[in-house]
Design goal:
YjbJ_sf, mainly alpha, CsbD-like protein, CsbD, 61 residues
């Protein structure tokens, strides 16, 4: 996984956790939901990169 894409995925996850916590603290359901979406987006990006890496590893063997 390229470092840039890994960082991008982690940033999305962290941003999502912050938004979710802020939404919970302020009873803002929309912000809370946006946070959950951002976390999911980060997780998806991370899994896509892991799948790419696995395919590259399989091809090199």
């Amino acid at each position: 996984m390229s470092i840039e894409r890994k960082v991008d995925a982690v940033v999305d996850k962290v941003k999502g956790k912050i938004k979710e916590a802020l939404g919970q603290a302020t009873d803002d359901k929309r912000t809370e939901a946006e946070g959950k979406v951002d976390q999911a987006k980060g997780g998806i990006k991370e899994n896509v990169e892991k799948a790419k890496d696995a395919l590259k590893d399989d091809r090199s063997e």
